[in-house]
TrEMBL record:
Signal peptide: none annotated. InterPro entries: F-box-like_dom_sf, F-box_dom. This is F-box domain-containing protein. The lineage of its organism: Eukaryota, Fungi, Fungi incertae sedis, Mucoromycota, Glomeromycotina. Residues 7-46 form the F-box domain. Pfam families: F-box-like.
Length: 78
């Protein structure tokens, strides 16, 4: 039964791919929803319009993401 619920949520969340704010709200519902919605939300983080100056905003997002990585991963990127 839980697999059916998960499959249904995946279908629903995939329909929300064009509405990142709605997907963000879904990850705040509970851990189960977060576990399902998070990969969809982060599938392509640079796809969404996140500001007036897209390239600058994307650069800031990249810096934020890399700042959260462990040191070993940062070394691999360098």
């Amino acid at each position: 039964m839980s697999q059916l619920i998960e499959d249904c949520l995946i279908i629903i969340f995939n329909e929300l791919i064009e509405e990142p704010s709605s997907l963000y709200s879904c990850i705040l519902v509970n851990r189960f929803w977060c576990r399902i919605a998070m990969p969809i939300l982060w599938k392509d983080p640079f796809e969404f319009d996140i500001g007036d100056e897209d390239s600058l905003s994307h650069h800031r997002l990249y810096n934020l993401i890399t700042s959260l990585l462990p040191t070993s991963s940062k070394k691999l990127l360098l």
